[in-house]
Amino acid sequence: MSLPKATELPIGAVVTEPGSTRRYSTAGWRTLKPVIHDDRCVRCQLCWLYCPEGTIAEVRGVFKVGGKTYDVKYEIIYDHCKGCGICANECPTKAIEMVPEAP
Q1: Which of 5-9, 52-56, 83-87, 98-102 is the least confident region?
Q2: What are the chain's domains?
Q3: Cα–Cα distance between 77 and 54 in angstroms, integer?
Q4: pTM score > 0.90 for this model?
Q5: Is there a contact between 81 and 19 (Cβ–Cβ < 8 Å)?
Q6: Which distant-in-sequence residues (6+ apart) come within 8 Å of 15 by Cβ?
Q7: What whole-number distance in Å separates Cα of residue 55 and Cα of residue 40?
Q8: SS (H, E, C) 24-75
Q9: Is there a contact between 65 and 38 (Cβ–Cβ < 8 Å)?
Q10: Cross-strand pairs, 70
């Protein structure tokens, strides 16, 4: 495969292999991991939207949480999460907590 020269790239272009994060486990980089507290989650999708690695999965179904019923919940794919904390920082209800990774 031949890569383009820097002058041939559009502004902001990234030349990497698409989907590489999903193919390889990068969990070993983490010192903190995000934990989603479903009872505080308002399903705003900000964690899913801002995750730079796409490691937050939107799961469809019927979920009962604290007397309320939701049709979606969010789960973290820990094999690919690097523990950057962007999801926790962007969560408006602080439903995501960064906790120390177990040794």
Answers
A1: 5-9
A2: 28-100 (3.30.70.20)
A3: 9
A4: no
A5: no
A6: 3, 4, 9
A7: 20
A8: CCCHHHCCEEEEECCCCCCCCCHHHHHCCCCCEEEEEEEEEECCEEEEEEEE
A9: yes
A10: 63
Per-residue tokens: 74: 């969010």
Q: Is the dihedral of CA 98, 51, 90, 61 positive or negative?
A: negative
d(CA 31, CA 84): 9
Residue type, 19: G
pLDDT per residue over 22-72, tens digit each?
566 767 778 999 999 999 999 999 999 999 888 899 999 999 998 999 999
Partners of residue 83 on adjacent β-strands: none
* Residue linked to tokens 């479903």: 38
